[in-house]
Design a protein that fits this description.
With about 775 residues, the protein is α/β, with parallel strands linked by helices. Helices cover about 55% and strands about 10% of the residues. It contains 35 helices and 16 strands. A 6-stranded mixed beta sheet has the order 1-3-4-5-2-6, sandwiched between helices. The longest helix is centred in the middle third of the chain and has 28 residues. The chain is globular.
């Protein structure tokens, strides 16, 4: 190294401030400096090795701390510069710059980029919040960036929130509604309105933040940490001044941060909420509000409740129409307006434990996913597009790298990539027509409901009106000898389903007749035909409701009694399954107070349970069975009456003995069941024997029953006290027992065919 480039000389020159960026330090200057004693000679350098090491940190520190002031002092120091020209700035080179060159910056290029980025952020003047950015998410910013779906409807609720927020004190609305009705969406709708400027001027500059209580509590293992966080959050909100906090599941405030000797979040927030220093929008369900917030009256009075009711079917359809493009774009499918209407209708009918519009949106979302996954061409197109993007990226990188002097290998690689890109584009174009045919069908909706509820998809797709037209024929195919009763029931159900009458009442019947003629069986078949599942039959045996206090089992226990928190047997089941058949078996055994409850259901179509919730029976079918009048042997005088008219007259007279006239007047039909004839017994025997066919078919065995068997069984069963029940006992004894004995004798390999016949006036079961 030349002596003029000595780092020691440059260090001393830097400290003395004698050198600028344009100064040169020649060898002659160095010799003069050595002669004058300003620089150490080569002989003295070994003795003074420690001095530069002490100087380096000081020089670096001086450069870092005083760089800005040095630049400011040097501005305009060139007196010879013309006023039109900018005076060149002198630059003092640090020891690092002298050692590694004038382009050296601490931290390298990354440091320079970071500095410029900081200057850019400083120019934009984005405010950073310590607590709000850590424990909250800015809904207003998300709305401005288009990350929130549009909100359809709910104008009344949003306007109510704006009105409460404009109050001077206690300006804290609390959204209360069932899960899935759109409470969080209302808060997001307020954020969209703030961004769009559709709010009063006092709310125009507000920012809406969603508080994450989980993040606020996480990691607070020592006493005082949680209180410190929430106090810091409150102070920051006060200092900013234009912040509204949205707390989803606001009931979690009660008890959050509880520990021995500490305050929970609700108690810390109460003073600020009361004075209007902190604005909060809460959201919770009716159950949680009653359980947690209503018990803390001091907290309850600081919130103004805003009830969010479940939207109607028409309103839910409008919501889905407004957001359909989001789901079409996400799944790459299309669905018509008819599918939207069908999705809401099916969700309302078959998904009973959730609420609109959430259940309809979920149903449509999963149906879109089902349609997209069904289209294999679309899946292939997505995969090919991914490969195409990778090939184009490689092509761009190769082109940028070879701008200078491309080699022959590079040309060959480019040619291969171009060939691959053309091949992929051609294949995508071939698949495009098939991939674009991703339409959501009713079958997709039905399959999703089948997965959720277990109801067969084929029954869901069938038109309800078409099924109502065929209802009588289907019932007659399974109920023998009661054609008149079937016609009366079918007509009443058609009236109820079409809903021509302005009064929304359930279809109601009283089935009367002797035991074993098909009253309960008709109810079971009706539930299966109307609502597609046997679990839609709600059966209450009235012999269990003979005491006065048993009314509580229907609607729930009153406050102060054991079981108040538990729902009533009837009301809870109907609330969960509004489309069902309710059977009150042997109604004459019920206590009169129980009948008073039924009177209200038959008249209004709804009832309030012990919890105060309104339970609607509009979509149910109510059936009451009774044996009244079946044992009466009174005969008629005067003009001869038919057996049916006489039986109905006897039944009505017997019913009037324990049912009040106003109760009978509210029932749609009193259906009298006929006694069974020989032909009816034979037809019922055929139905009962056919029940064995599926189970034997699973074993690989065919069942053949000769016609003489049905007549033989009918002759033996007629005249019994229990009618069809006696017939079932006879079949079990004469047919089922003999078939079971035969199968056991054959062991693990059953016979291919079993023939049931009459031999010597008895039932014979043989191998065919």
């Amino acid at each position: 190294m030349a002596s003029g480039d000595s780092p020691f000389a440059r260090q001393l020159g830097f400290l003395a401030g004698d050198f600028s960026a344009d100064d040169e330090f020649s060898d002659d200057d160095e010799d003069e400096a050595v002669a004058d004693g300003e620089l150490p000679s080569a002989d003295d350098s070994e003795e003074d090795d420690d001095e530069p090491i002490m100087i380096l940190p000081m020089a670096v520190g001086a450069q870092i701390e005083g760089s800005e002031s040095a630049e400011d002092e040097d501005e305009g120091s060139d007196d010879d510069a013309s006023p039109d020209e900018e005076a060149p700035k002198k630059h003092f080179f640090s020891p690092f710059e002298q050692l590694f060159g004038s382009s050296f910056q601490p931290g390298g290029a990354a440091y320079a980029d970071g500095a410029s980025e900081k200057k850019g952020r400083k120019g934009r003047k984005e405010k950073k919040y310590k607590y709000l950015d850590t424990y909250c998410s800015n809904l207003t910013r998300k709305a401005r960036e288009g990350k929130i779906d549009r909100i359809i409807g709910r104008d009344r609720e949003i306007e109510r929130i704006v009105q409460i927020l404009s109050r001077r004190q206690k300006n804290n609305p609390c959204l209360i509604g069932e899960p899935g009705v759109g409470k969080t969406a209302i808060a997001e709708g307020l954020a969209l309105r703030i961004v769009a400027g559709c709010v009063p001027q006092r709310l125009a500059e507000k920012q809406l933040f969603l508080l994450d209580l989980t993040a606020l509590v996480a990691g607070t293992q020592f006493r005082g940490q949680f209180e410190s966080r929430i106090k810091g959050l409150i102070d920051e909100v006060k200092s900013v001044g234009n912040v509204i906090l949205f707390i989803d599941e606001v009931h979690n405030l009660v008890g959050t941060g509880d520990a021995e000797g500490s305050m929970n979040a609700a108690n810390i927030l109460k003073p600020a909420l009361s004075r209007g220093e902190l604005q909060v929008i809460g959201a919770t369900t009716f159950t949680e509000y009653r359980k947690h917030i209503e018990k803390d009256t001091a907290l309850e009075r600081r919130f103004q409740p805003v009830k969010v009711e479940e939207p109607s079917v028409a309103e839910a359809i409008e919501v889905l129409r407004g957001i359909k493009d989001y789901y079409e774009e996400h799944h790459g499918v299309t669905f018509s307006d008819d599918m939207i209407v069908r999705a809401v209708t099916l969700a309302e009918r078959y998904i009973n434990d959730r609420f609109l519009p959430d259940k309809a949106i979920d149903l449509l979302d999963e149906a879109c996913a089902c349609a997209a996954l069904r289209n294999k061409a679309k899946e292939e197109t997505v995969r090919l597009n991914t490969e195409l993007d990778k090939a184009r990226t490689k092509m761009e990188h190769l082109s940028e790298r070879n701008d200078g002097a491309p080699t022959e290998a590079d040309f060959q690689k480019v040619a291969e990539l171009r060939t691959q890109i053309l091949r992929l584009e051609q294949r995508i174009e071939e698949l495009r027509p098939e991939a674009d045919e991703s339409d959501v069908t009713e079958g997709d909706l039905a399959r999703v409901i089948e997965l959720w509820t277990g109801i067969p998809a084929s029954r869901i797709e069938e038109s309800e009106y078409k099924r109502l037209v065929q209802l009588a024929d289907r019932l007659k195919g399974k109920i023998k000898g009661q054609d008149e009763a079937v016609e009366l029931v079918s007509a009443a159900i058609r009236r109820s389903r079409v809903q021509i009458s302005p009064r929304r009442r359930p279809a109601s019947f009283i089935f009367v007749g002797p035991t074993g003629v098909g009253k309960t069986e008709l109810v079971k078949v009706l539930a299966a035909e109307l609502f597609d599942a046997p679990e839609t039959l709600i059966r209450l045996d009235m012999s269990e409701f003979m005491e006065k206090h048993s009314v509580s089992r229907i609607i729930g226990s009153p406050p102060g009694y054991v079981g108040y928190d538990e729902a009533g047997q009837l009301t809870e089941k109907v609330r969960r399954k509004p489309y069902s058949v309710v059977l009150f078996d042997e109604i004459e055994k019920a206590h009169p107070d129980v009948l008073n409850i039924l009177l209200q259901i038959l008249d209004e179509g709804k009832i309030n349970d012990a919890q105060g919730r309104t339970v609607s029976f509009e979509n149910t079918v109510i059936v009451m069975t009774s044996n009244a009048g079946s044992n009466s042997n009174t005969s008629s005088l005067g003009f001869a009456k038919s057996a049916g008219e006489l039986a109905k007259e006897k039944a009505l007279k017997a019913l009037s003995d324990f049912l009040r006239p106003e109760f009978l007047a509210r029932v749609d039909e009193v259906v009298c069941f006929n006694t069974l004839t020989d032909e009816d017994f034979a037809a019922i025997a055929r139905l009962m024997c056919s029940e064995y066919v599926p189970s034997l078919a699973e074993k690989g065995c065919e069942l053949i029953v000769e016609n003489e068997v049905f007549a033989w069984l009918a002759a033996r069963a007629k005249g019994g006290k229990s009618a069809a029940r006696d017939l079932r006992s006879l079949i079990r004894r004469e047919v089922e027992d003999k078939m079971a004995q035969l199968l056991i004798e054959y062991g693990a390999v059953p016979p291919k065919r079993i023939v049931v016949s009459v031999r010597d006036d008895s039932i014979a079961v043989n191998i065919g």
